[in-house]
Amino acid sequence: MPKPALVLVPGAWHTPQAFEKIIPKLEAKGFDCFPLSLPSVGMVPPVKDLEADIQTVRRAVTELCEAERDVAVVSHSWGGLPVNSALDGLSKAEMTSNGAKAGVVKLIFLCAFVVPVGISVFDALGQKVPDLWRIEVRLTNKTKIPELNKI
Hints:
By secondary structure, the protein is of the alpha/beta class. It is built from 5 helices and 4 strands, in the order βαβαβααβα. The termini are far apart.
């Protein structure tokens, strides 16, 4: 039985390059890896909707399933949020009951957010930013920005 294809979903502020050191090791073990680039990465202002990320994950997984590949989805950090919604109805059990030959067989969460349906990360944290989350602004030049002094 072939190994499942690995769909790699990065966290916020990460590109597919976040997986560049592990992909060769996984491929050497016989896994095909598909690192995703989430549309929300680098968005300004901050993300207010997960829909584009959800659709990116869903499209990648659906294409692999349509190619009759079982899929394991690996999500890191923020990546857990769109993954939780994107895979609705794509489990192997659900897919094969509808006549498909493949589906999602594993979910792997690496330091990822897993929250109940209808709950945001902010809600899950009691609508309070944890003290350990520190906002740090680093300027790459000597320009002073007055608004940053208020942070």
